[in-house]
Amino acid sequence: MWDYSEKVQDHFFNPRNAGAAAGANAVGDVGSLSCGDALRLTLKVNPETEVIEAAGFQTFGCGSAVASSSALTEMIKGMTVDQALKISNQDIADYLDGLPPEKMHCSVMGREALQAAVANFRGVEWKDDHEEGALICKCFAVDAVLIEETIRANNLSSVQEVTFYTKAGGGCSACFEGIENILNKVLAERAETEAAAPPPPPEPVKPAKAPLTNLQRMRRIEHTLEAIRPQLQADRGDIELVEVDFDKKIAFVNLSGACSGCQMAAATLGGVQQRVMEDLGEFIRVLPATEMGKF
Amino acid sequence: MSEGIYLDNNATTMVSPEVVQAMLPYFTEQFGNPSSIHQFGNKVGLAIKAARKQVQKLLGAEHDSEIVFTSCGTESDSTAILSALKAQPERKEIITTVVEHPAILTLCENLEKDGYTVHYLKVDGKGRLDLDEYAKLLTDNVAIVSAMWANNESGTYFPVVEMAAMANAAGIMFHTDAVQAVGKIPMSLKDTKIDMLSVSGHKLHAPKGIGVLYLRRGTRFRPLLRGGHQERGRRAGTENAASIVALGKAAEMALEHMEHENICVRAMRDRLKEGLLAAIPNCFVTGDPDNCLPNTLNIAFEYIEGEAILLMLNKQGIAASSGSACTSGSLEPSHVMRAMGIPYTAAHGTIRFSLSRYNNMPEIEKVIVAVPPIIAQLRKLSPYWDAANNVPVEEPEKAFAPAYA
User: A74 in a domain, yes or no?
Assistant: First the structure.
């Protein structure tokens, strides 16, 4: 049996706003074919103020799908459409005191239904842009499609890199075999395309690089952090560079938003450190700025 | 939940009180290692010998040495298939079916990565095999056929006795995963051509952690675990004496209750089926109801989802299971239901009720009363259901066609 929070159980056994909203003028139908969950969200939006006056849901789905739908309707009532659109799937999960990782897609479905309903209200077409795959990492709810796309997009070649980029495998590590299988598949394809392509011309011998100045190093680190930020921001966190101590080879950073206090902060910093080292071409530690006085 | 109604016996069964009593001494005074020569070990050795006889009798095996105790059904399955491959390295193909238990399917998928070819026999809408298709695949390249005796979800039988004879005629080993069938229906393996058969103790009121591989005398065999001389060197590792004794007792009791299982349990199952089908619109029995286990009933409730049904049943103390995606944690609905071509609006709403001799008719009547309101309540939430008229919406697939991820 799932470890559902009391709030999830409450919203499942006593769903709020079940059925179509009376006088609705917006409807969003979304679903996940592989998972079999589907949701119809109906909204009554005041055309003048764009305030959501009523919301109703109909759900074909499991306990957490019903609970996520019910929670969503409660959350958005009284909000303006723009306010409602700011609700993330994590907000829905938080409202329910959390969902099991296998069930996070239920909250995603809620957010998508909202987007679809708002699009319907505004008379524009909404297209779902994410694809869902089999769940690989149960600790952080990372699915196969995301892992494969990330491997391709970033040319990854090791399980460790996959963990740094997606968090998959960063917890109990039981999914390493699953990650390796995806890696092997992509690497095999990559080898084929490389074999098909003409051999690359021999690389010109590079002149020995002059060591970077401290200013150049600092800029590189900043550049790397800028590249990482969108990923963190997607999880509602952020990172900024505070100080670099080149003698001790430490970069101090501030983690903010959802990253601060996150149990995974250490793993996140580990991943950041790896990227910084790769870009910089030398060893450097990345530590939270709170550690600054200790060195 | 002693107050509850347990209808999930294909998942696991209660250990019979008599079985618990039989095994308890082997944790305390009878703690010896059966391999030891002294009196402490000797009595345990004799108890294991007796248990082997009891299992032999239940299976109708010719010799008691054909019974190899293992740790579970999955170990028996893996041992059987890997043994056949290792003993016949020139044969690189396996025949199995699309509806096998993951103990077989996941192993086969993994073997494909190692270069073996696996033929998966398809099933029709009632879960039945096409034996002509099977016959065509029986070639000299095939190391082993593995087909389940009865399906764990639908209860549907495969004609394993006939299939084993066909394989034997073609000189091919035959294994059957019979964990759901053993103890529920009579068998006489000595009159069949089945070479290997898997048993799981906890499906027949013995504890978890004990299984059997039936290994016909003369079948070429390579052990999975090598080490000591236990089980005549065919499964090394110190015997799980208490559980072996327990399985022996459970086998004896299963044989005693065979008639009860096939008359009384079947009658309860049939009453449940009639009661639910009569009270609930838009539901149907999956599998082949005329050719299935006496204790199993699998019903698809259309337009609602299984986990939601189970949660509501659980609230009333009724335990069953579902083929829906969400109960397993995978995103896929049951591979058995999909293989039978059940549409996903129904596959996700399949509920399996599996009974045992510890159920009684008043419990069944309670379930017949409890289920219909749950189905009605969930359908009120369903976008495929017209709550006002209590019927599915017209052309449900068209009326609600969500944007799919």
Answer: yes
